[in-house]
Specification:
A motif ('KMSKS' region) lies at residues 202-206. Its main location: cytoplasm. This protein has two domains: 10-191 and 302-331, HUPs (Rossmann fold), CATH 3.40.50; 216-297, Tyrosyl-Transfer RNA Synthetase (Orthogonal Bundle), CATH 1.10.240.10. Helix content is 53%, strand content 7%. The chain has 13 helices and five strands. The strands form two sheets. Strands 1-2-3 form a three-stranded parallel beta sheet. Strands 4-5 form a two-stranded parallel sheet. Bound molecules: adenosine monophosphate and tryptophan (TRP). Adenosine monophosphate binds next to helix 1.
Length: 334
């Protein structure tokens, strides 16, 4: 993976509207999107059809979708420049997913770690759907419909992008050159932000609230969560030598403060965990303040947001339908 920022490429990524977004989503994914959107053609999707692969509440889903859309804009996605749309508004996604599933090897599909993890979390075997199993094929369709070169995601999505590449290569070999082969783009420092309650697990919105910091958490909640975050037994602030819990907190501090590692190590050399945590909470609160203000403004009035999503849908449909048409033709469907 190259460390250089890509330019003049097509970028595609998406987030599921399955709960509040947290600082892991921001640092692992959205922050990279913002950095990429100016020099590239970027497309950002709210992947609602992925969110319905596990049990969910249809009454709250519409709000969750608008929450994610508002998060994109408040975080800095420019809807005038980048395309922003809702996955279920472009039917080419599910249609291409079916076509790709005809060449998806069952063996590879059975090795998807996210499927295994998500199925384990479900209460009964009956709740594990076929859609949860075939989810990576839908993700491949999302990416391949847009001639995507680069997919900025967190580390946990690497395996899905590997599968997307395999499906594209197979399809091209079998039916003729149709799809661009995409590359993952994974941030070096915040690819995997860990849980505040257990530093061996990634920060996840499906775990207990104290384990993550939501982008919409109030300052007092942020202070409380950081104060109760687990630390390691010895007090050393070192990016190389600290235990996993402190390393994680240091990584979060680095990402939000923009400071260099050495500078941070020096800053806290003689400080206690308590002092470090106060500085960390202050930094997160200050960084999120402008985001939260913008988010609340956008979310209080949906008309503008719906207009943006409608425009995004039309632009996305134009690109996706052309690719789908070509794929069907190459497969011999008339
Ligand atoms: P999800 O919330 O699973 O839909 O993830 C949305 C995006 O955020 C994906 O690109 C994930 O890889 C990224 N992401 C989720 N959790 C984390 C985390 N703890 N650390 C870094 N990136 C994450
Ligand atoms: N599977 C991704 C996640 O859980 C979300 C996603 C769906 C996605 N389709 C995508 C990410 C296409 C990047 C590109 O985070």
């Amino acid at each position: 993976m190259s460390t250089e920022l890509p330019s003049n490429k097509t970028i595609f990524s998406g987030i599921q509207p399955s709960g509040v977004l947290h600082i892991g989503n921001y640092l692992g994914a959205i922050q990279q999107w913002i950095a990429l959107q100016d020099a590239n053609d970027a497309i950002f999707c709210i992947v609602d059809e992925h969110a319905i692969t596990v049990p969910y509440d249809p009454k709250t889903l519409p709000d969750r979708v608008l929450d994610v859309a508002a998060t994109y804009i408040a975080a800095g996605i420019d809807p005038e420049k980048s395309i922003m749309f809702i996955q279920s508004h472009v039917s080419a996604h599910t249609e291409l997913a079916w076509l790709l599933s005809t060449i998806a090897p069952y063996g590879n599909m059975s090795r998807m770690t996210q499927f295994k993890e998500k199925s384990k979390k479900l209460s009964s075997k009956d709740a594990i759907s076929l859609a949860l199993f075939s989810y990576p094929v839908l993700m491949a369709a999302d990416i391949l419909l847009y001639g995507t070169h680069v997919v900025p995601v967190g580390e946990d999505q690497k395996q899905h992008i590997e599968l997307t590449r395999l499906l594209a290569e197979r399809f091209n070999a079998q039916f003729g050159e149709t799809f661009t082969i995409p590359e993952p783009y994974i941030s070096q420092t915040s690819a995997r932000i860990m849980s505040l309650a257990d530093a061996t697990k990634k920060m996840s919105k499906s775990d207990a609230e104290k384990s993550y910091i939501a982008l919409t958490d109030s300052p007092s909640v942020i202070r409380k969560k950081i104060a109760s975050a687990v630390t390691d037994t010895d007090t050393a602030f070192s990016f190389a030598k600290s235990g996993p819990a402190v390393k994680n907190l240091l990584a979060i501090y680095k990402a939000f403060s923009g400071k260099e590692e050495q500078e941070i190590e020096k800053e806290f050399e003689k400080k206690t965990y308590k002092e470090f945590k106060t500085a960390l909470a202050d930094t997160i609160i200050a960084s999120l303040e402008p985001f939260q203000k913008k988010y609340n403004d956008i979310r209080s009035e949906d008309t503008e947001l719906r207009l943006i999503l409608g425009k995004g849908m039309h632009r996305a449909q134009g690109i996706a339908n052309a690719t789908l048409h070509q794929a069907k033709k190459n497969m011999g469907l008339i």
